[in-house]
Automatic annotation (TrEMBL):
Record domain WYL: where: 125-189
Any Pfam family the entry gives: HTH_11
UniProt-recorded name of the protein: HTH deoR-type domain-containing protein
Segments forming domain Helix-turn-helix type: 3-50
Gene3D superfamilies: Winged helix-like DNA-binding domain superfamily/Winged helix DNA-binding domain (1.10.10.10)
Recorded superkingdom: Bacteria
PANTHER family tied to this protein: PROTEIN PAFC (PTHR34580:SF1), PTHR34580
SUPFAM superfamilies: Winged helix' DNA-binding domain
Length: 294
């Protein structure tokens, strides 16, 4: 009923009764119950009378235009496609009750729907509930080097960054705050044990505080078929000397295995030029891959 009243100025008791398939007496009882719950619902008599919600309870239309509310729904829809918690669903439903679009929105946000993405979304929702409940979580974890460990943490913050989910929390084993990638978590148990939240060290948990690898500049000659990949990751300013078939790109990359894997993902459409230490190390890495198939 509240959603309907947020959407319209007033609605007659008979209309509401017909919509909910109850009597008008039941509608008036519900009005009394909602008033007791703190929702300011009023009734007016007469030909144009009906049931409504006091204007100051609704969002001021001068503050948020229909376009503003539509933009909020797009933004929340993007978040909801990543993590669909009861709180987010309730917020979306409330805003939808205030928004009756005259035309389709010109913007849509969608994320990858791989099987792994759905599994990680479900895990993120479980961590979100554990954060709200101040619930300890135990899991086995494989770090960037492949080393395994068992952790028990107080979860505090979920972060979605670079198409990856992370959980930030206080590790009881390390007696310090740590950040863990959800895709590196193997087995997980959400314990019944709760904890008293401790102050968050924002500087320690900020993404600027993570390790900064030594960067090296490389030159890449690539086919236009992968131009979009380079633009998405490094921007148009990285590209120069374009022809109908190829282009040259100057990139700054860390000299580590993740970079080698990225370059290999470009397949036969890109080639690192020069003869610097980076290229030597990259050739050694590709030679090691070849030995896996001999």
């Amino acid at each position: 009923m509240v959603m309907i009243l947020l959407r319209q100025e007033t609605v007659s008791a008979s209309e509401l009764a017909a919509q909910f398939e109850v009597t008008t007496r039941t509608i008036y009882r519900d009005v009394d119950a909602l008033n007791l719950a703190g929702i300011p619902i009023y009734t007016t008599r007469g030909r144009n009378g009906g049931i409504g919600i006091l204007p100051n309870y609704k969002v001021d239309k001068k503050l948020l235009t229909e376009s503003d509310i539509g933009n909020l729904l797009v933004a929340l829809g993007g978040v909801q496609s990543l993590i669909d918690t009861p709180a987010i669903r309730a917020t979306v439903q409330k805003i939808q009750a205030m928004y009756q679009p005259e035309q389709r929105t010109a913007l849509s946000v969608q994320h990858a729907d791989w099987t792994g993405s759905e599994e990680l979304k479900a895990l993120a929702e479980q961590f979100s509930q554990a954060i709200q409940a101040h619930q300890l979580v135990s899991f086995t974890y494989s770090d960037r080097t492949g080393q395994g460990s068992t952790r028990q943490i107080e979860p505090y913050r979920l972060t979605y960054k670079g198409e990856r989910w992370y959980i930030q929390g206080y590790s009881l084993e390390r007696a310090a705050f740590r950040t863990f990638r959800l895709s590196r978590i193997k087995t997980v148990t959400f314990l019944a044990t709760t904890f008293d939240p401790r102050p968050l060290p924002e500087e320690q948990l900020s993404w600027g505080g993570f390790d900064h690898p030594v960067m090296t500049e490389i030159t890449l000659v690539a086919d236009n078929v992968i131009r979009d990949v380079i633009v998405e990751r490094f921007g148009r300013q990285a590209i120069r000397d374009e022809t109908a078939e190829q282009f040259t790109a100057t990139l700054e990359l860390p000299q580590r295995e993740a970079t080698y894997r990225f370059l290999l993902s470009l397949g036969v459409h890109a080639r690192v030029t020069g003869n610097d230490p980076f290229l030597v190390a990259f050739k050694q890495y590709t030679a090691m891959i070849l030995t896996q198939y001999q």
